[in-house]
Structure formats: structure tokens, C-alpha cells
Amino acid sequence: MSFGLGRGRELDDSGVGVRIGPGGDLPPLPDGVAGDPRAGHVDLRAWFPHPEHPLEIEIGSGKGTFLVQQGALRPETNYLGIEYAREFYLYAADRIRRRVEAAGDLTNVRMLNTDAFEFLCWRVPDACARVIHLYFADPWPKTRHHKRRMVRDEFLRQCRRVLEPGGELRIVTDHAEYWAWMEEHFARWCLPLVARHSVPGSEEHRPTTGGFVRLPFDRAESAGQDEVVGTNFERKYKREGRPFYGAILKRI
After folding, report:
1. What's the CA gap between 109 and 86, in Å, rounded?
2. What confidence score (pLDDT) does residue 6 get?
């Protein structure tokens, strides 16, 4: 229950929020997880009415705008939104629940209230996600807080493990210094692109080493005109005149 973002309305995550704890969708970590990191893995796709559909994960869903837009546009894809802040999680889950009840769509969207990095490390099976979305993550600008940034080497390693071959990590930020930090990390994980011409007038890029191929970011299908992703943060930052930086890291 929350009365901040809900403006006096009780927020309800029933049917949308992933149940955490004994008997829930996400049970406690087993005792042997330290010796076997895969012991805590769960079948995320079983959380959806159509587990056979491909899975995409959004880290830091905020108020759920991207999930609402993209989930409605792509009902054949399952979307799991992860939000650490309890109030934002409840707002997004309630928003999706009300949409399900009113329109009957978005049954392909679930919300989870947890630490996304820890969830990736201990809960998510290998090669289970088609896309991981990370939009406007907290830049943690103070030097002493850089260790809290989501984009770091271990995060990229986990993303490569969790993504299926050919899967994508899609990232956008408005923070120039964080973007420079990201690019340093991308350089360690992404292949140089080797161009070769196989058909006159065409160009292919063939990887030789590394974990990802870096590609230019292309706007989300559900984004509005002149938008990159269409999240609340993007719309706020756009009004402030901030530039945006983005990339796609494609798993090899």
C-alpha cells in the first residue's frame, strides 16, 4: 500500500507483482547457493500466462511507462520489470493491473520489487532473455558512489550469461560522465567491428573476439515522435534540454 504517488488511492499489485517468499513465485535462496550459483535459478517464463513467448527484462522500470507502451505493442513478448524503489514498483504494478482489468491487455507484463543486480546474479538462468533494457539508470555522480553504478564489469558479465545468443542489452542515459564510464566498460566487452563486403553495395560486420558487438541505439518501437524510449525520465530530461546517449550490446 502507498499513498504518495497514488495521491490517496491505494495501490494494488495483485496479479502483476511477483510474489516473493515461501510458496511464492520467487522462493528464498537455497542454503547451498554459495557452492552452486545456479541453485537459486528460477524459471522466469513460468510467471507468465504464455511461458513459450520470448522474455525481455527492464531494469529500473520507474512508473512503468515503457512497459505499458511496449507491452501493449508486443503482446507476443513477455516483459519483466524490476524496480528497487517500493513506491515506484507499486505505482507501476497498480497501473498495469488497472490496464489489465480495463482493457484486457498487458497480461504479458509482470513487476518485481528487488535489487536487479542481485537478481541477475543469483536468480536468472543462462540464456533465458532476448533483451535487457536499462534506461536512465541512476548515475551515482559522486566518486565514492561509483561502485553503486549498474554498468560495471560484473553486470556486463551477468548480462552476457543471461542473454540468449544474439540477444541485446539496450542502454540509454542522459548523463555525460556516466556515459564516458560506460564506454570504457563497453570497450572491454565489445568486439571491434570487422567490415567485409559479401554482396556489392552491402556491408557485414563479423566479430572476432569478445562478448558483445556494439551497435548504434535505435529508438524503441513504442516511443513517441522525437523520443528515444518514451519513459517519464526521458520526457522530463528532454524538456530540460539534456542530450541522450545510447548503445546496443549484442551478445555473441
Report:
1. 18
2. 67
Q: Is 129 exposed, middle or buried (0-12, 13-18, 19+ CB in 10 A)?
A: buried
Q: Which of 165, 170, 159, 164 is nearest to 218 (CA)?
A: 170
Q: Which fold has domain 31-251?
A: Rossmann fold (3.40.50)
Residue 193 is predicted with a pLDDT of 52
Degrees, nearest 5: CA angle 149-116-83 = 100
Residue ranges covered by each domain of the chain: 31-251
**Annotated catalytic residue, options 138, 153, 218, 226:** 138
Say if residue 38 is exposed, middle or buried (CB neighbours under 10 Å; 0-12, 13-18, 19+). exposed
Residue 134: pLDDT over 50: yes
**How far is the C-alpha of 215 from the C-alpha of 250, rounded, in Å?**
7
Check if 138 is active-site: yes
- Provide φ and ψ at 117, rounded to 5°: -65, -45
How far, in Å, CA of 111 to CA of 161, rounded? 22
Query: Within the chain, what is the greatest distance between any pair of CA atoms?
Result: 63
